[in-house]
Structures are given as structure tokens and as C-alpha cells.
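Lab notebook, bench 4. Still working through the backlog of constructs that have no structural model yet. Next entry is a single chain of 509 residues. Request: give me the C-alpha cells for it.
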Amino acid sequence: MPSKAKKQEQNAAKVAELNKALNSYKLSASLDENTGLIKTLFEHVDLIVNREFENPKSGDKFCLFYCDGLVDSKAISSDIIRPLLSMEKTDGNSLAAAKNSLLIASDVNETGDVAELVHELTYGGALLFAEGSDKALIIGSRNFPVRSISEPDSERIIKGPRDGFIESIAPNLSLIRRRLRTNQLKIKIRKMGRKTSTSVAVCYIEDLVEPKILSDLEQRLDRVDIDGILDSNYIVEHIAEKSVFGFQTCGYTEKPDVVTARLLEGRIAIFVDGTPVVLTAPYMFMENFRSSEDYYMGPIYGSFTRLIRIFGFFASIICLGLYVTIVAYHQEILSEMLVINLVKENRVVPFTFSVEGTIMMLIFDILRETGVRMPSQTGQSLSIVGALVIGQAAVAANLVSSAIIIVVGFAGITALLVPKLASSTIICRYFLLFLGSIFGLMGMSIGIFIIMSHLLGLKTFGEDYIFIPPKFDLQYIKDSFFRAPIPSMIERVPFNLNRFRSSLRNSDL
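Model written out:
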């Protein structure tokens, strides 16, 4: 089996060969040869429309190519074809005359690069060829359907901005540019994907970003070698650090105000054309518990809801394993009456505590996943009614005890408080349940120690996933477990230890 490095070299060589083959095509001064080249490249592509016409006054011949469904047909007729047909006699360079004085379109570029022509034609651009010219004009005429800007369903809030990203990269970038009116906001657009040539934009504020992190991120993006990028997760799995427990080391959001806030903190945002999900890096563990609404509802309410989310995450991964562990191995912890009731109920149940806990948790996860995939109203009804009916029927049939229904329901509901940690919550919950079922409280303690050690050792683009400052200072925990009043948050929290020490030296000065 070839190694991973060898496969990457083979793929890179294949890409270079394809690009070389495409770049080997050259335009000529003959209109027939140029149009024949484009027709050959897009053979059996019925969406590519070509229109050949001749100016009756000057006798200049033109040929226009565009992709049906991606362009504005009215603009093609009024801004391109009509001016060209009414053009007076030129000095022999009809393409230059069309570019300089006749075309009404706002975006007009001249090029002889066939690879660029192919890319623009497939992305809504119109190509204009003229007799006697070895170049072509790329005319901006894009008008493909896009979804209107609306509030994301996954990040609904009570108070605050309601706009959200869509699947087109240009409107998404404009939402950020409208909020950050500074020349320090830098936007670098690159093409990624051998077949899709997807536009990917890297955004950052130049005087706030850490140069080392920016350089590391760009190097990771340069190493991405894939045929197509259809969603931002295609990039995440190539550039982000891996976590065996499913913790996200690259942030994601669909809200422009969240991206703007993270850019102001020195983060980097990655926009991918074709998806409303925008990535942010680096991404710290405590960001999983933050919500944009925390900053719109006052510090007391924001701090309370954040503490609820933190409690919900740890309760969701611990409570089921802890219950099974106590009732199976450490009944002396409970009161005598409670132990008698639990034992009485379990006598008629054919499964052990750990088996019935695992079965009911799996059923809850199945119902939750089914509700997500179903239409919104039907899915909500299925999740709630299904859980109630199945739980009640299981208790009535003496398949499980009523206590396990309460514990499983509590574990499942608290997990919904932090949707960004959904995958890691499921993995950690079953991991602790497995260890607790076999080794008791000792197994639970070992499992929690393993998870915490993993979090403390995890990196996000070279930075600590959980940053612990060596010196206690309220300024560095002002936006962690609680949300301090905005006027008191006067310094940006550093990502790592070196910047923390640097900030201390600067403050001493």
C-alpha cells in the first residue's frame, strides 16, 4: 500500500498535469479557431450557449458564450449584444473598443488564459471573442438563484441581529464588510478543489491577528488536495487537529455578528462558497458555551445562562454513568428507602442496570436523530411523543425501571443545551457509562481523568484548547465561566502562555 505522502505526491502530479494540459491551449487571432476551442472543451454540455453575430456598420464579427441559468439574460441583451450591434466602425481592434467604450457592464476583464476563461464561464461569466484578437473579454453577468438572508434555524435568539449567512460567498463577505469599516480587514480569496474550483476566503484583521497562526493556517490550506469542496467540513477535516472524543478544534457559525466578534478577538474566519457555515480559528473550549445572546441580554442573565450550559454539558456526560455505577456497586451512598424502591423495581426487569441504561439511551438518540431528519413540526412531535410513549410502554411492560427513564431523559435534555458539543457529548457519555458499568466509581474517576487530560493536551492550530493562565487575574477570566460587563472587558485575552507573559510585561510598563 502506498504511503499517505506518496498518494499526495501522485495527486499533486495529476493536478499539475491537468493544469498543464488546459494551459497548453492558446487563443489565436481567428474567431473560428477560438470558438471551436471553447466548443471542444464544452462538448456535450448543453447549458453552454453561444451567439455569433456581426456588426452591420463596421462588419466586426463577435461570438458570445455563456452558461444558461447562471447569467442575467436581460443584461446579456441590453448591456452586451445591443451596444456591439450599434458600434461604429473601429480602427481594427474591435475587442479593445468594446472594452473601453461600448460595454455597459461594470465588471469587464481581458485575458488570454484559457484556464481562467473556463473557470469564469462555469461560474456565470460571459465570454466575448472578436475576429482578429487573440484574447477574450470576461463580462460579469452572474445571476444564479440564491437563498434570501434570514435568521439561521440552528442559532435562533430572542434579542440581537437576525441576519445569517447564505450559500453565496459574495453576500456573506459583504455582511462582514458592512460591520467592519476598516482597511485592516483583509480578505484573501483562493480556489480549492481540482474539479469544483471552489472559492475560499480567508478573512482577518491585520493588526489583531497573530502572524504565526495565520501562516500556519495558510500552509495547512495549501496542503489540502481534494477533487471537490462542497461544505466547510471538507476543509475542517484536512486542517484541524483531531480529537478522539469529537471535540471541535475549529469553530463554525452561521451568524455574521459572531464572526465579527471573533475577528475582533484576533481570530481568522474562513468562508467557503456554497455553504452558509463559516469557520473560525483558533477555537477554544469555552467558546462552545458562549452564545451571541449573552452579550445582548445583560451580564447577569448572560452569566447565568452560560453557567447553565456548562452544567448541562457535564451533567449530560456524567449523570447516566454515575447512576448506573451507584445503584450497581455503591448502594451504600443512597438512603435505605431509595435502595429498597430501586431493588424492588429491578426485580421484575430482565436486564441489569447498565444494559437497560444503554438500551434506553440508544432509543433516545435514535428518536432525537429521527426528529432532526424529519420535517420540523413532524420531527418535534415524533421526538417528544415517541419518547413518552416508548418510555411509558417499556415501564408498563417491566422492560426497564421508571428511574432509568428519568435519568436518561435528564441526560438527553441537558445535552441539547450545548448543540456544538453534541458529538463529543455522546462519545463521552457512552465512554463513562462503559467504564462505570465495569469498574464502578473508580472507572468513572479514571474516565473523567482521561477526558480532562485529553482536553488539556488538545491543540487548536498550535494553541492550547484550554488556556490556563499561570497568574490569577480577573481580566483573563472575564469571558469564560461568566460574562463580565462590557465596559470592564478592556483587554483581549491572549491565546497562549507566551502572549500572556507579553501582556503582563506590557501592563507592568
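Notes after review: The chain has a mean pLDDT of 82. Residues 307-460 form one domain. Flag for follow-up if needed.
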